[in-house]
């Protein structure tokens, strides 16, 4: 399997420049709308005495707290443990979900056998497994990684299986007729054909993992973004709480955008 990244020279025509400007301006306009609504909400909070406890959520106070978190290193200290847990959970989900998805997509009997159990387990909230995770793992960190893996494995399994089902059976028949062995066919035909589905499932899994991370970190640990939110709430530091919420959104957006660009620019082609 060969991974090739597209590198196209950017045209310099006026039409292209206008299109590029539009692509930049449109997201910025969306951000401006969100900030504008947030700012108006802050004015309402400031003008309503019974909402005085929420003054920390205004644009000015939250922005100031976010800057303090960044310059003090608190943002980095909270982010690194959370990123480590998410990446570990996703790694386990990828390692388990990819072969399982390939198998149930390839063998109809296995799909029929596991369809009900998988759909049943998928609908159970990952946080419902917390007591079991505590008993299974000697540390809270291991339990959180387990919860992230449990939550994020399903998009990878089902997306991979769907990709396998879309493979033209003629490809597999031709590969077998040319003397291809099962592992060789898997590596040179099946995996390149479903790679986008696998990484598309991984992108969905990333979103699920990032959502599960925060409530999972509310319990039993003293590091991470979830713990930082819990601590800010307990100390009534609502400006810091708002800043951490913004930080979580920004980091999640960057991770998703990076993975989306990788999927968009990469092409998997069969190898000789």
**What form results from the Cα inertia axes?**
globular
**Main sheet, how many strands, which sense, barrel?**
2 strands, antiparallel
List unreliable stretches of 5+ residues.
none
What would the CATH topology be? Answer: MetI-like fold
Strand order of the largest sheet: 1-2
Which radius of gyration do the C-alpha atoms yield? 23 Å
CATH architecture: Orthogonal Bundle
Number of helices: 10
Description:
Helix 3 (74-106) packs across helix 9 and helix 6 (140-165) packs across helix 8. Strands 1-2 form a two-stranded antiparallel ribbon. The protein is globular, with a radius of gyration of 23 Å. The chain has helices spanning 14-47, 59-72, 74-106, 108-122, 130-136, 140-165, 169-177, 182-216, 225-234, 238-265, and strands at residues 2-5, 266-269. It has ten helices and two strands. The chain has a single domain (65-269), classed as MetI-like fold (Orthogonal Bundle). The protein is 78% helix and 3% strand. It has 272 residues and is mainly α.
